[in-house]
Amino acid sequence: MATTPGPTRWLFGDQLGPHFLGDTGSPGDDGEQPVVLIESRKVFTRRRFHRQKAHLILSAMRHRAAELGDRCTYLRTDTYAEGLAKLPKKALPLSVCSPTSRQAEDFVRSLDGSGDLPAVEVLPARGYATPREDFRRWADGTKQLLMEDFYRRARRAHDVLMDGAEPVGGQWNLDHENREPPPKGADDLGLPHPWMPEEDEIDEEVRADLDRWEADGDVSFVGRDGPRAFAASRAEALAALDDFVDHRLPAFGPHEDAILEGDEWMAHSMLSAPMNLGLLDPLECVDRAERAYRDGDAPLASVEGYVRQLIGWRDYIWHVYWYAGSDYTRRNALEAHEPLPPWFWDLDADAVEARCLSHALRGVRDRGWVHHIPRLMVLGNYALQRGWDPEELTRWFQRSFVDGYDWVMAANVVGMSQHADGGLMATKPYASGGAYINRMSDHCRGRRYKPTVRVGEDACPFTAGYWWFLDRNAKRLEGNFRMKRALDGRHRLKDLEDLVVQERERGSDAP
Ligand SMILES: Cc1cc2nc3c(=O)[nH]c(=O)nc-3n(C[C@H](O)[C@H](O)[C@H](O)COP(=O)(O)OP(=O)(O)OC[C@H]3O[C@@H](n4cnc5c(N)ncnc54)[C@H](O)[C@@H]3O)c2cc1C
Ligand code: SF4
Fold first, then answer.
1. Is the full-model pTM beyond 0.90?
2. d(CA 394, CA 133)
3. DSSP category for residue 144
């Protein structure tokens, strides 16, 4: 039974699902609660976002307002403070679920009614599987923040893929069955084209607004506009989830890490964007995936792989953002200070000859999305090898990706991809040469560069860049026993000196 409406709920643009309403976030608990949504223009003027990301966020907020109808007060203002100051008395008192960035959290916590702005009651965060205090308790009591340990606790706590006290199938992690190279000779995985939204009049209005703002010189965007590819409403997000579970989840595991140029989505869910908008709760996705396994519709390796991404990795990344402290994003353990080059900022894929890098940049330019491996092993790997500043790179990822938010950047970019935290997230840097990309993709075949060549016209910039990275960082990494073999290996290269000269010269130029 629905409860009586509580205080008006102020929803941020990434809190758009039903679980951000009501006292508990359970379905049917919102009691027709009134809602305030504030569309702040300043968010878009402060940063140069990907055009499709700005579109997705505005479209999702406006779709939510349309769904809520008279229950929603929708304000378009420059700042949140301006919006709050404009609220009519009948919209008060206000409550909000703890927002997803430190800046926004500090702001809502400062609202105690003492100035011109109304007081706001701040509730615990929603939209993640493990509560913040549980993570803190676990992290305070453990030496190393091992994701695998955290993940097993979450499996137990939420009773996911469990047979009593034991994991279904007897193993917690089936990674060894996943992460295969792409099928030999294939252009794609042969899966049906994924679900895509149909744009409506709200999208039309958003597009016209963005065109106008841009023409007025108020905002500027990066990346290309294109038909919206990600869910912007609850109904669309549920349709996308159904489509993923029915058609892609069974193939999710084996080719999770593979790249094929002819298959931009592979078997990935494309649900990070709607989930980060708050349109889906990770536990409902996990529940759908587990049901597919129990009904015999998807193999355990794929389902376990997907479940681990959600209640393992996604939650872990969220918690590290809060746990590691506000200076985490400024860490720079490898003292990487090179600025990001203009071609990278501008997503200028056509300026790049290295096929893997131009393909990944093209994906970002045209869709604001590429899957995990191009992010980590192509884009992030290249930045790491070139010594680009991790804080700048963090800004780049956040602006360029449709699913990029403050909380998801810290551990993924600063920690996992750039090793700038000195090893809190990963025991060794994710640096690798062309051999990995060659094994996991179809990029290298018949192209200008050769993954096995280190020096000369054909030298693969990733392979040469890998050795240059090791040589440059040898002192900083020598205490890391997992890097010993690689560091020793460079002494066996007869062409190391020439390679270093060559890569210094290439520097941050488009390869
Ligand atoms: C350098 C770098 C930057 C990244 N930036 C983002 C980002 O801005 N936003 C974002 O949501 N993810 C980010 N990721 C994680 C991951 O690449 C994306 O979540 C994933 O590619 C999104 O596509 P998908 O929904 O099809 O994912 P799938 O492959 O279908 O994975 C399932 C789900 O798991 C979750 N997930 C898995 N790994 C992570 C992770 N490391 N962090 C957070 N969620 C995870 C996502 O919600 C995703 O939808 C980043 C990873 C790296 C290495
Ligand atoms: S040869 Fe090197 S640069 Fe070219 S696609 Fe392969 S890994 Fe990338």
1. yes
2. 26
3. S
